[in-house]
């Protein structure tokens, strides 16, 4: 997608072939800075500290991380250690394990001398496939939006089609296009008059900082709202559809996404607002059924709750990034990173293969396996 007229992906192999470039997402929206990851340790740290984040992008970073490990040492022991190190960085998004297994299974049968190059090819293939899957999600989602927009009552036809999204499931969360935001970009480019309500997404504010940044750069009309505003907007007919991404989808269609997604699904259900979840195949965990019981939820630092980062508005430090404390000294914080929305609250899944009910039969109908 575009930053100041230049097309970017979120991750790329540097020309010398021994390091990987990424955009530092901890500094957005205030600073656009790239970083070079030159070792498996650097790749693991980038995932853990959320320099890169979003389920598909974590997966691609993990894949390139294995390449970096094998460039340094192509032995079986190095491969196994790097797999474990990368897989332990973040527990919820299944794309990470999926991508690591794919690279490991590709390179393990090869003589050590051939492994790094094979890992590079596989990581690049995963990245390219992610772009293609996200663009296809965008096309299928565009058709959904066009149908919903056309079905609105005559008095609403002249008004913007109102979409609400939570967290960041845009191009910054993937390699390009995004999952939940891909249909929004496609719709905007197709000339659909639409407006996006962007949940700020406390505690890390991926909506306020990343989704708003992306939409602004692409010229998509949007408004940032506090996480608690969505239900009110739905009650007053100001949301035509909700669309979110997912970090792990069980075979029966339960979806695990950024904390707070479940509450949006409940509000949407209560107000008859369609609730869509956009995902590529790499996000489906066919081994799991009941998402609430079975998906591991990342426990993040309480400091993300008790403090907040932003740009200083005034005074001697104006313009600098700073963290400020929100809570009284001594008040503990609790910070589960994700929650699970049961399939019964999901209107449909929008995948690269088409739109399906959030059911095992629906997913198997699209993918035909398990
Ligand atoms: O903690 P994050 O920022 O990695 O969480 C990201 C999300 O929850 C996204 O919605 C999800 O990864 C789907 S991204 C296409």
Characterise this structure:
- The chain is of the alpha/beta class and 370 residues long.
- The chain folds into two domains: 2-128, Up-down Bundle (Four Helix Bundle (Hemerythrin (Met), subunit A)), CATH 1.20.120.420; 143-367, Rossmann fold (3-Layer(aba) Sandwich).
- 40% of the residues lie in helices and 18% in strands.
- The strands form five sheets. A seven-stranded mixed β-sheet has the order 8-7-6-9-12-17-18, with helices on both faces. Strands 13-10-11-16 form a four-stranded mixed β-sheet, with helices on one face.
- Strand 10 (248-250) and strand 11 form a beta hairpin.
- Helix 2 runs antiparallel to helix 3 (76-87) and helix 2 (55-72) packs antiparallel against helix 5 (112-150).
- It is globular, with a radius of gyration of 20 Å.
- The chain binds 5-S-methyl-1-O-phosphono-5-thio-D-ribulose.
- 5-S-methyl-1-O-phosphono-5-thio-D-ribulose (MRU) is lined by residues 53-56, 93, 167, 169, 173-174, 178-179, 206, 245-247, 257-258, 337.
How are the SSEs ordered, and which strands pair?
Blueprint: E1 2-3, E2 6-7, E3 11-13, E4 20-23, E5 34-37, H1 40-48, H2 55-72, H3 76-87, H4 94-107, H5 112-150, E6 161-165, H6 181-189, E7 194-199, H7 206-218, E8 222-225, H8 230-235, E9 241-244, E10 248-250, E11 255-258, H9 261-271, E12 275-278, E13 284-285, H10 291-294, H11 303-306, E14 307-311, E15 321-325, E16 338-341, E17 348-351, E18 354-356, H12 360-367
Parallel strand pairs: 6-7, 6-9, 7-8, 9-12, 10-13, 12-17
Antiparallel strand pairs: 1-2, 3-4, 4-5, 10-11, 11-16, 14-15, 17-18
Helix pairs in contact: 1-2, 2-3, 2-4, 2-5, 3-4, 4-5, 5-6
């Amino acid at each position: 997608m575009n930053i100041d007229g230049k097309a970017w992906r979120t991750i790329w192999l540097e020309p010398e072939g021994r390091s990987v470039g990424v955009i530092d997402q901890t500094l957005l929206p205030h600073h656009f800075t790239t970083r070079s990851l030159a070792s498996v340790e650097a790749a693991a740290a980038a995932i853990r500290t959320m320099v890169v984040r979003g389920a598909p992008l974590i997966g691609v970073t993990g894949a390139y991380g294995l390449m970096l490990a094998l460039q340094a040492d192509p032995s079986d022991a190095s491969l196994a250690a790097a797999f474990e190190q990368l897989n332990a960085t973040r527990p919820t998004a299944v794309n990470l394990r999926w991508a690591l297994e794919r690279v490991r299974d590709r390179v393990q049968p090869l003589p050590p001398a051939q492994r790094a190059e094979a890992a590079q090819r596989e990581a690049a293939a995963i990245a390219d496939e992610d772009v293609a899957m996200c663009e296809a999600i965008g096309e299928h989602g565009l058709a959904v939006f066009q149908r919903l927009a056309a079905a609105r009552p005559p008095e609403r036809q002249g008004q913007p089609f109102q979409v609400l999204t939570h967290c960041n499931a845009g191009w910054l969360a993937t390699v390009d296009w995004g999952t939940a935001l891909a249909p929004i970009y496609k719709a905007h480019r197709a000339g659909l008059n639409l407006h996006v309500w962007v949940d700020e997404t406390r505690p890390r504010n991926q909506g306020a900082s990343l989704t708003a940044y992306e939409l602004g750069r692409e010229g998509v009309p949007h408004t940032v709202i506090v996480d608690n505003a969505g239900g009110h907007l739905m009650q007053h007919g100001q949301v035509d559809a909700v669309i979110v991404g997912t970090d792990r989808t069980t075979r029966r269609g339960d979806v695990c996404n950024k904390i707070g997604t479940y509450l949006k699904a409940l509000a949407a259900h209560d107000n008859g607002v369609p609730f869509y979840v956009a995902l590529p195949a790499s996000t489906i965990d066919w081994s799991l059924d009941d998402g609430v019981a079975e998906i591991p939820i990342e426990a993040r630092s309480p400091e993300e709750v008790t403090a907040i980062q932003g740009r200083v508005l005034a005074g001697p430090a104006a313009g600098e990034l700073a963290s400020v404390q929100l809570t009284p000294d001594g008040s503990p914080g609790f910070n589960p990173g994700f929650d699970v929305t049961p399939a019964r609250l999901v209107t449909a899944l929008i995948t690269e293969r088409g739109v399906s009910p959030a059911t095992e039969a629906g997913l198997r109908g699209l993918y035909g396996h398990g």
